[in-house]
């Protein structure tokens, strides 16, 4: 019976040790989970910022496209005026 009692005592001590180790691991994992959640929130905030920057850049590109169209129209008008000024008085319009 003493061998059985010793075995049960050792088993009980081992179970207590394992329980304490599992509890410690749980606390560590909880801390890691909180850190990962905080990182996830930061990445989400960065993603939102990049989305806003993308919209701003798109708006700038649209403005440049409009400006380019206006400059092309202005250049065409300048060329037409220059052609008319460059003609000699006796030439018919083309």
Distance between the termini: 123 Å
| Number of strand segments | 0
Task: Write down the secondary-structure element order.
Answer: H
Q: Outline, from the CA principal axes?
A: rod-shaped
Describe the 3D structure:
There is one protein chain. The protein has one helix spanning 2-86. The termini are far apart. The longest helix is centred in the middle third of the chain and has 85 residues, at 2-86. It is 90% helix and 0% strand. The protein has 1 helix and no strands. It is rod-shaped. The chain is mainly α.
Layout of strands and helices, then pairs:
Layout lengths: L1 H85 L8
Main attributes of the structure:
94 residues; mainly alpha; 90% helix
In a nutshell, what does this entry contain?
By secondary structure, the chain is mainly alpha-helical.
